[in-house]
Amino acid sequence: MMGASVSPALAACNDDPAPGVNWFSCDLAEADLAGASLEEALLSRSVLDGADLSGAHLRRADLANVSAVGADLSGTNLSRARLGSSDLTDADFTGSDMRGVQANRATLNGARLDRVLGTDMGLDSTQMRGASIEDADMAGVSLEQAHLRGLHAREADLSGGALSGADLEGASLAGARLKDADLGGASLVDTDLTGADLSGADLRGADISGARLDKASLGNALWADGQRCRPGSTGSCE
User: Fold this and answer.
1) pTM
2) What's the chain's average pLDDT?
3) 21-42: buried (b, 16+ CB within 10 Å) or exposed (e) per residue?
4) How far apart are CA 165 and CA 124, in angstroms?
5) What is the 3-state composition of the chain as percent helix, strand, coil, each rounded to the nearest 5?
6) What is the DSSP letter of 229?
7) pLDDT tens for residues 19-42?
8) Do the beta carbons of residue 167 and residue 148 sit within 8 Å?
9) Cα(135)–Cα(133) distance, rounded to whole angstroms?
10) Smallest Cα–Cα separation from 121: which of 96, 146, 138, 106?
């Protein structure tokens, strides 16, 4: 059984960790679930604040509407898990497999997603202020209308991502890969894009006031005013 006491909301809350376990609406705060096999488990609406899920196997698990504030989910397999509308404030996902995760409308303020494998993630309308995704592979991610002020995204791969309407004011995207990304209507005010790859990106209607673009690759990008940048443009749209 788990190393932390569990106050069950349902009889199933007393069950040991196992693939497909039904822990719907259970109190698992501070639970020790490190390395647990929880593939396709039902954890929706459960409380996981401060829980240790490091190295756990949560592939295709249902974690929608959970509260996992400050939880340790580093090194977990969360591929194709559902995390929509969950409170993941200050949670640690460092080095996790998050391919295909759907977490639309989740709260990830201050969360750490450094070095995650997160291709094709769904993060529309998320709150990610001050979160960190440095060195993450999130190619094809959807972050439309996401709140990303102060995001730490140095060297992150967001190529082909959908970030239309996202608020990236004051974010650090130095060295990030945004090739062919959709940034239409995004706020890039005071954003650090030093050395970023924005080739082929769509920035029509974006607010780039105060953005730092030193050594940024802008070839074939659609600029904020609708201009197509020349191939090889660097630092400014020519």
Assistant:
1) 0.93
2) 95
3) bbbbbbbbbbbebbebbbbebb
4) 10
5) 0, 20, 80
6) P
7) 999 999 999 999 999 999 999 999
8) yes
9) 6
10) 138
Residues 198 and 219: beta-carbon distance below 8 Å: no
The total of other beta-carbon atoms located within 10 Å of residue 153's CB is 29
Rounded to 5 degrees, what angle do the CA atoms 64, 20, 38 make?
75
Rounded CA-CA distance 37/19 in Å is 6
Please tell me the distance from the alpha carbon of residue 77 to that of residue 119, in angstroms, as a whole number.
13
User: How far, in Å, CA of 9 to CA of 106, rounded?
Assistant: 23
The 10s digit of each residue's pLDDT in 86-126 is 999 999 999 999 999 999 999 999 999 999 999 999 999 99
User: pLDDT tens for residues 187-211?
Assistant: 999 999 999 999 999 999 999 999 9
The 3-state DSSP class for residue 14 equals helix
What token pair was written down for 7?
């106050």
| DSSP-derived 3-state class of residue 12 | helix
Nearest alpha carbon to residue 16 among 74, 28, 60, 25: 28
From the list 167, 120, 156, the residue with the least C-alpha distance to 141 is 120
Name the H helices within 62-204.
none
- Give residue 12's pLDDT: 83
- How far is Cα 102 from Cα 142, in angstroms, rounded to an integer? 10
